Structures are given as structure tokens and as C-alpha cells.
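Do me a favour: review this protein, sequence plus C-alpha cells, and tell me how the chain folds. Record follows.
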Amino acid sequence: MHRFFVPPAWLEKEEVTITGPLVHRLRNVLRLKAGAHIILLDNSGWEHEMEVTGVFTQRIEGRVVHKGLATGEPRTKITLYQALPKLSKFECILQKGTEVGLVGFVPMISHRCVIGSLEDISKAKVERWWRILMAAAEQSGRGRLPSLRPAMLFPSACEEAGRGGLTLIPWEEETERSLSSVLRAEEQLPFSINLFIGPEGGFTSQELAQAQTYGAIPVTLGPRILRAETAGLVAATAMLYELGDLQ
């Protein structure tokens, strides 16, 4: 069944009226007819199954026939602090990270980033990122949109992450502590994890030391060097598996 995020106000009553650009997609692209069923999402974690009762030029009418909790949300809340690679690669990270189960993205600017200034990130680019997140969340069965924080400098990101949650930073020179060993050493399963991933050139040793002062734990992702757009997805998937979220 096709899934769509819609304004929560549309789902306050059993009868639903869809307006705006989504009408074109449902009417002219998917060619929905009366009697068809779709899933509407209000970003609360609930999903609403709607039966279409009428298709018109500028609106589509229907009624909610079932409401239930979405099953695509992970128990473990992993936020990816991603030092920005080339922006086209960051779009892939947003898309695939949403599919994997990340709950938040924080774009960072670190020493070796290709983008050197927060001003390099336009409003239009951020709007495109949100569209990518929404499409990926709809496709992958999510019930909530991941958060997308404003871009921040690396020191500010370290300070923010240090306020709560387990913070992990994959580091190519770390050879002993693995993701699984750190997670198994926790007395309780971590609920919130901050995952720091460097840019194409990696973090500097000074940045690693700075992150450690805020409680970040360096870990290894194995013997192979992963690209910036791959490392976060691999690490997140491994953690979700280790913590039982992929069962």
C-alpha cells in the first residue's frame, strides 16, 4: 500500500480530504480510483489506512478505516553527526540512512570538509534534503520523519552530543575497541546513540582528542577503510543488528 506523510490536521476526523500537490500524484500518476486504499502518516508514529471514496480535480476524499502503530521505527535512537562530504553524497546518506533506521541527522563542518562554511548550504538545498527524507521514510515503512538539524561546526556538535547518550566515533587508527565490544560493555542497552562520521579525509587527531573530552569513544569498523558516505550506514546497521532492532 502506498504511504504518504500529510498534515496532522487532515487526520483529526474519520473523513479525510486531501488537497494540494499530493492530489496530482494520487490522481494522475498513481491513478487511484474510489475503493483504493492508501496509508496516511501524521509523523506521530501512527499510520492511518484510508479508503478513497471520491477522486476530483482538486481534491481526493476518503475515510479512515483502520489506525495502528507503525512498525518501522527502531527502538534504538541513532543520530548521525555527519561531517559533510560532497553534497550529492550527503543526499545518498540521508536517503539510505532513513531506510536503515536513523532517527536524526546533524550535518557538520570539520577541518577536512569540502564545504568550508555554513553559508555554503542554501535554503533550497535544505528543502531538497527534506524531500529526500520524506520520500525515503514513506518508501521504507517509517512512521516518523527523521530529524534534520541545522548544520553546525564540529566543536559545537561535540558539545551538544556530550549532553546525553552514548557517543561513538569510528577511527581508522583504533584497532581494539569494536562497536560490539563497546555496546556489550554497557550495563543497559543504550537508548540514544550519537554516531560521529568524518569527511572524505577523515577527522584529524586534534578533532578526535576534542571529541574524547566530551565523552566520545573511538571504535574500529574493521580492517577495511570505508568511504565517508558508507561508514555511517555500516556502523548504524551493525549497531541496530547488535541491539536487536533488525530481528
